[in-house]
Each structure stands twice: as structure tokens, then as C-alpha cells.
Amino acid sequence: MLKLQIMTAAEQVAAYLRAELMAGRMLGVMPGVLRLEADYGINRNTLEAALRLLENEGLLISQGTGMRRLIRPQVQQKKDVLRVGILANEQVEQKVSYMVELRHQLTEAGHSVIFLPKGMYELEMDVRRIARMVKRYPADIWLVVAGSREVLEWFVNEKLRVMAIFGRRRELPIASVGPDKLPAIAAATSELFRRGHRRIVLLTRRARRVPRPGAVEQEFLNQLAQHGIVPGPYNLPDWQESIDGYQSCLESLFHLTPPTAMILDEVQLFLATQQFLITRGLRVPQDVSLICMDESSDFDWCRPSVAHIRWDSLQMVRRVLRWTANMAEGKIDLRHNFTTTEFVNGGTIGMAKRS
Fold first, then answer.
1. Are residues 157 and 34 in the same domain?
2. Do 193 and 173 belong to one domain?
3. 194 and 294 together in one domain
4. Do 149 and 16 share a structural domain?
5. DSSP symbols for 172-198
6. What is the pLDDT of residues 324-349, one digit of tens each?
7. Are residues 145 and 170 in the same domain?
8. Which residues, including other chains, have CB under 8 Å from residue 22's CB and lie 6 or more apart?
9. How many helices (H) and strands (E) does the chain have?
10. How far apart are CA 54 and CA 112, in angstroms?
11. Does the pTM of the predicted model rise above 0.70?
12. With contact defined as beta carbons under 8 Å apart, do 296 and 289 qualify?
């Protein structure tokens, strides 16, 4: 079981500033709160609390109200301390168990970790807006979670040291890690066909569909073709990436030829779809079968059990830690790692309902 260590915002900022001090990137006098607020875009109350934590540790010396703090001269400078910037798809990803564990392990190793204040979803996957934000937060290495092809290519072109966690990472010259869902999506689709389903829909984020279907999405379309179905926009719908856009997509799907089975890319989409079906008076799995392409500890509480794709998140955490250690030692590491996955059959799949 993962160890969870929830850090407050002040503790996260203190960890980041601590690493800056230990690496010798700040010397003499600590910048004032207003300067730090302008540089990092962090609330001044949070910054003040973080600076007090560093005072208590003896890394900073207070000179009184209104005076900038002195940096204690004997602070050890460590060459292997890195500033790790994390660019997430959505801010909620900070609270996912494997991200909490990853942040904890990186901090334990002496690195400073900071999540950028906005996710790529909030910035509408606009590469220019994302680039402006990234440049405001100087980091030695970057972790990009579920990045689009365009975003990851920008990091490559900027020659930044970056690792892709999930996302459109295949064939790019960067390190990457994530689950290999190709065998699992093939098994899930085959199980639906075995149960008589023909109207099968996969709902996934725009970054997984544009500029062309990702590897997992293409495998799903290939499976349809192998079972005699000509795949089209109905099976892999386009939708505006917003809450309202997703609801509109569901409304459209169930207007004329409602699907008998749906595969949802993320837990959020799975829950939103469940809620939509409830409001329509549709039952799972009697009316619609559901499969989630991700896993969640919340599924343990569900009855009937949720059909989903399982993978070992600890493998991913260990790979990111190894890559970070290699970066700290100045090594080149551009390996792509794909963790194994398993399709878990569950009670949210039933026989296709006859029209």
C-alpha cells in the first residue's frame, strides 16, 4: 500500500525554496515576499509561512519586521539537488495516490517539487499559454502528465529535460513512462463483442484524438474493424473539452442510436457518465455496459464491481525516481517504459440489450 504524506501549500513552497538554498542558487539575502510572489505567482501568505518554516530550520535568519532575511552562510550546497516542475493535465491530479507518493519520494531524496498553478486543461491545451507559464517557473527537470503531442513537442524543441508521464509520448526523443493499454483495450473490446455488443463508443480526451487517434484509440478502432464494424465518428466522438461539452456529447449519443456499451478513458468521465445514465433512468449493466480505462481505489467500494484496466502505479513511480537520479548525475536517459496492464472484468458489463 502506498504511503501518503499530504503536504500543505506552505510545506511545498518551503521544499522548493530549501532546494534552491541548498543548491546555492540563492546567496546572501533572501528575496522579499513581494519579489517571490511576482517571480513564482504564489500567494504571499503562503510564501510568508514557508519562509517561517525555513527560519525554524535555521536556513534563514530573521532581521526583523520589514527586513529581508539573511541566508545562513554555512548552508551546504548539493550538486545533486534538482528543482522538479510538474505540469499536470488537471490540478486534481495532485491528489491522485501515485502523484502524492511520487512527490513524497522526490522530496525525501532532497529535490524540490512544485506543481504549476494551472493545468493544461485549464489553459485549453494552448501551447503558447502553457509555454508562458512554464517559463515563469524555472526548473531543472520537468514532468509532464498526460501532455498532448503539441505540448510535448514544445518541450523537445526548447531542449528542456523532460519526462512524459502518460500522454502522446511515443516516438518522441524524451524519456517517458506509462501503462501499455493496447493488450487490455483489445481484451475489453473483445469481451464486449462476446456479449453481443455492436454499438460501442470510446470517450477520451481531445489530446488522445488530435491530430490523429493515439495508439490505444487506434487499437480500439482496429478491433471494431476486425469484428466487421466500419469505425467512424460515432465510435470515437469528438467533443468540446469542458463539462458542458461532455454532457452535450452524451446527449447527442443517446438521442437516436444510443450505445449499448461505453469505454471511458478516465475515472472522471466514468463517474460523469454514470450520473448521466441515472438521470436518464438507464441501468448499468442492464441497459448500458461501462468500462473504465483507468483504476481507482474508490472502485473497491462499488457493487457491482467496476470493469476497468489495472496497472501497477508503483512501477511508474520507481521509473520516474530512477530518471530523476540519472538527471542529477548528468546522465542521458531517453528510455520509454511501458508498464503492463490487465483488463479486469466486472459487474458493469452485461449482455447487449436487444433493440
1. yes
2. no
3. yes
4. yes
5. SSSEEEEE--HHHHHHHHHHHHHTT--
6. 999 998 899 999 999 999 999 999 99
7. yes
8. 75, 76, 77, 78, 81, 110
9. 11, 13
10. 14
11. yes
12. no
161/183 Cα distance (integer angstroms): 30
Domain count, the chain: 2
Backbone angles phi, psi at 312, to 5 degrees: -90, 105
Grid cell in block for residue 210: 488530435
- HSE-CB for 151 with a 13 A CA cutoff: 35
Q: Report residue 272 as a C-alpha cell.
A: 460523469
Parent domain of 76: 9-178
Inter-CA distances, 348 with 60, 194, 281, 285, Å: 56, 15, 16, 5
pLDDT digits (tens, 9 = 90+) for 64-120: 887 888 888 655 445 578 999 999 988 878 888 889 999 989 988 889 898 898 999
Co-location of 169 and 187 in the same domain: no
Is 112:81 a contact under the CB 8 Å cutoff?
yes
Q: Of the candidates 188, 194, 163, 211, which has an alpha carbon nearest to the alpha carbon of residue 321?
A: 163
Q: Are 31 and 60 in contact (CB under 8 A)?
A: no
Residue at 122: amino acid letter: E
Residue 260: inside a domain: yes
159 and 21 together in one domain: yes
Residue 322 inside a domain? The answer is no
Contact 204, 219 (CB under 8 A): no
Instruction: Say yes or no: 116 and 191 in one domain.
Output: no
Between helix 313-328 and helix 97-108 the angle, nearest 10°, is: 30
**pLDDT (tens digit per residue) in 22-44:** 766 777 788 888 888 887 788 88
